[in-house]
Amino acid sequence: MSAIFNFQSLLTIFLLLICTCAYIRSLAPSILDRNKTGLLGIFWKCARIGERKSPYVAVCCVVMAFSIPFMQ
């Protein structure tokens, strides 16, 4: 089943995007900071969410890590 039609897979993809963007911004901030607007601004916004809401994102990642193997 596609990740678009499965809600749990969609949340997993969204969490991976947030975590990946925050990690890339911590290594090389200039890559994401120059694209704050437009279509590539989505990645900058995901990095900001990952930085500012990191405890909540971490809790969601742990919950998803336990729910994926045991719920399916």
Automatic annotation (TrEMBL):
<feature type="signal peptide">
    <location>
        <begin position="1"/>
        <end position="26"/>
    </location>
</feature>
<keyword id="KW-0812">Transmembrane</keyword>
<keyword id="KW-1133">Transmembrane helix</keyword>
<keyword id="KW-0472">Membrane</keyword>
<keyword id="KW-0732">Signal</keyword>
<feature type="transmembrane region" description="Helical">
    <location>
        <begin position="54"/>
        <end position="71"/>
    </location>
</feature>
<keyword id="KW-0333">Golgi apparatus</keyword>
<comment type="similarity">
    <text>Belongs to the KISH family.</text>
</comment>
<dbReference type="InterPro" id="IPR051523">
    <property type="entry name" value="KISH_domain"/>
</dbReference>
<protein>
    <recommendedName>
        <fullName>Protein kish</fullName>
    </recommendedName>
</protein>
<dbReference type="Pfam" id="PF06842">
    <property type="entry name" value="DUF1242"/>
</dbReference>
<dbReference type="GO" id="GO:0000139">
    <property type="term" value="C:Golgi membrane"/>
</dbReference>
<comment type="function">
    <text>Involved in the early part of the secretory pathway.</text>
</comment>
<dbReference type="InterPro" id="IPR009653">
    <property type="entry name" value="Ksh1"/>
</dbReference>
